[in-house]
Design goal:
Layout (H helix, E strand, L loop, with lengths): L3 H35 L1 H9 L5 H15 L2 H13 L5 H14 L1 H9 L2 H17 L5 H23 L2 H4 L2 H13 L3 H15 L2 H13 L5 H14 L1 H7 L5 H27 L1 H11 L5 H23 L3 H11 L23 H26 L1 H5 L5 H25 L5 H37 L5 H27 L5 H28 L7 H23 L13
Helix pairs in contact: 1-8, 3-5, 4-5, 4-14, 4-15, 5-15, 5-17, 5-18, 6-12, 6-17, 7-8, 11-13, 12-13, 12-17, 13-15, 13-17, 14-15, 15-17, 15-18, 19-21, 19-22, 19-23, 21-22, 22-25, 23-24, 23-25, 24-25
Length: 561
């Protein structure tokens, strides 16, 4: 029975231990966020090099995870990219495997710490805090990076201090716990649950390595908990796949299956050959000092992930087929509107997210152009054959406008100034495209009303509108080229065509009123003619805005708004 003082001491030690774990996790989040922001452009270039080469995929997965210090985050990114159609399932599989290798970097850093190293990290953390007061974004970002790296080792030092593990009562408590759960499958379960709770296998492994270094946890138990941590890290990816498409769920399943197979293989090896395995690790890092004890666990973590990747990489195709068998494509009873290229999970990768937003807007522009072309069929031929197509396209255009606007609002919170300007221009382009879509719908409705009223434009009036539309369709080509390819060379032509459309509008309205005065035009069609000509002129204004968005976020200053 513990006395009152012993209970207080035990409670105090556990508080120190939890505080150390908390500081460690906060440091990892700081470091990961800072590295992710500073390496955004590099990550974009890495992703642009994605190919079907399995080895390069493993390298990309390991590199990105080593940068952001989280295989879970990498897996969530990959799920987002697959869901958005940026990469295929076969390309994603080696990246997931490589992510497991990248996550071992944290363990190696934890194992290498010593007094001098810790002192340097404390100074780095202090320097980072001071840099955080700077008004310059780059210095503040470096400050976050230094603070995160320093806090990781502050947390580790708190965990391994006398205040946490120096109390014999704490050692006795953990000894009692480990004697109860001294069974491989239970230890693996502990690793799974602990990692799932803190959402980081790197942090879980760091805690285990520290506990081994202080002598609280025996090496043979630590190995099984590390294996469980590799399964526990899949929980984040599995949760991220909820609500995603079938391929994204398959990525999460492949991640889980990969780690599960590796854990089963290594569990069998350690269970059967425990003594030779322990002796091998001890012989590689002899001595009873904390660094040697910690390096044994850290190196085992590296061996596990590298070996599992080497064993399963040749079977990546089989893993993909297996995931497709387990998770089948379902045909929804009613197709729901979704973005074609953008996924919420891309918010963690602003450069890639902006690249996908642009693709989505290119698609929206193609729908708008199609609706403009189809909207005049009813007027020209007296047929309503495109009624359903125009309605469906307009529904997608309106949905895309709303969904992309919300996505860009969320994205704007974590981007650099140059990207803020780009996001601002995208807001304006979205508005212009949506307005063009509305005009197309209006042209179609005018055609339908004229069919119902059994009235039509005269041959001359129809020819004038067709001529004006020809200029508009040329403007679509120039605006698309400017927006998609950042081509400034055609902007003067685009502006020239818009000025011609303005002149054409004045000319056609004057011609129309002359026909009315002469009695050569049906009065009933007059409002429709004026609406069409004025609508086409406004479409031209919006197209100029789209094209000029690459040089001016709000469009051309010469165009009317």
């Amino acid at each position: 029975m513990l006395s009152g003082d012993q209970v207080v001491q035990l409670f105090s030690s556990l508080i120190w231990l939890l505080a150390g774990v908390g500081v460690f996790i906060v440091g990892m989040n700081f470091l990961g966020d800072a590295l992710e922001k500073s390496a955004g452009g590099g990550m974009k270039r890495l992703l642009e090099k994605i190919s079907n080469n399995r080895f390069s995929g493993v390298g990309i997965g390991a590199g990105v995870t080593a940068i952001i210090q989280s295989s879970s985050a990498t897996s969530v990114m990959v799920i987002g990219l697959v869901n958005a159609g940026v990469m295929t399932l076969m390309q994603a599989t080696p990246i997931i495997m490589g992510a497991n290798i990248g996550t071992t970097v944290t363990g190696v850093l934890v194992a290498l710490k010593n007094d001098y190293f810790n002192m340097a990290m404390y100074l780095l953390a202090f320097a980072g805090v001071m840099m955080g007061f700077s008004k310059k974004e780059k210095i503040k970002l470096c400050g976050s990076l230094f603070s995160g790296l320093g806090l990781i080792f502050v947390g580790l030092e708190v965990m391994s201090s006398e205040s946490a593990f120096g109390n014999p009562l704490v050692e006795d408590m953990f000894t009692g716990i480990f004697s109860v759960i001294d069974f491989p499958l239970l230890l693996i379960l502990v690793g799974i649950v602990f990692t799932a709770l803190i959402q980081s296998s790197s942090a879980a492994t760091g805690v285990v390595i520290t506990m081994v270094g202080t002598g609280v946890m025996p090496l043979e138990l630590a190995l099984f908990i590390v294996l469980g941590a590799n399964i526990g890290t899949c929980v984040t990816a599995l949760l991220a796949s909820v609500g995603a498409n079938a391929n994204s769920k398959r990525v999460a399943l492949i991640h889980f299956t990969f780690n599960l197979i590796g854990t089963v293989i290594f569990t069998a090896i350690i269970w059967i050959f425990k003594e030779p395995m322990i002796n091998l690790l001890i012989s590689m890092f002899p001595g009873g000092d904390p660094m040697s004890l910690q390096m044994r666990v850290s190196f085992f973590h590296v061996i596990f992930n590298v070996t599992t990747t080497a064993l399963l990489l040749p079977f990546a195709g089989l893993l993909v087929k297996y995931s497709c068998l387990v998770i089948k494509d379902k045909r929804p009873e009613r197709e729901q509107l979704t973005l074609k290229y953008v996924d919420e999970r891309l918010l963690t990768m602003p450069p890639v997210a902006l690249m996908q937003v642009k693709k989505e807007m290119d698609y929206m522009l193609s729908l708008v152009e199609e609706n403009i072309k189809c909207s005049f069929v009813a007027m020209d031929t007296g047929s309503s054959e495109h009624d359903e197509l125009i309605r469906e396209n307009e529904e997608i255009i309106d949905f895309t406008n709303g969904a992309l606007t919300k996505f860009l609002i969320n994205l704007s919170a974590g981007v650099e100034h140059s990207d803020e300007v780009k996001i601002g221009s995208y807001f304006h382009v979205l508005n212009d495209l949506e307005r063009i879509g509305d005009h197309a719908e209006n042209f179609h409705e005018i055609g339908i009303e004229m069919i119902e009223k059994k009235i039509a434009f005269s041959e001359k009036a129809r020819g004038e509108i067709t001529s004006m539309r020809g200029g508009i369709m040329q403007m679509f080509d120039l605006a698309r080229d400017a927006f998609e390819n950042l081509n400034k060379d055609e902007l003067p032509r685009l502006l020239g065509l818009e000025e011609q459309v303005d002149s054409k509008k004045k000319e056609l309205i004057a011609s129309h009123f002359a026909r009315l005065a002469e009695g050569n035009c049906n009065v009933d069609v007059s409002p429709y003619y004026s609406s069409v000509v004025s609508g086409l002129e406004r479409v031209a204004d919006h197209l100029v805005n789209v094209g000029f968005s690459i040089v001016n976020p709000t469009g051309s200053e010469n165009s009317e708004h």
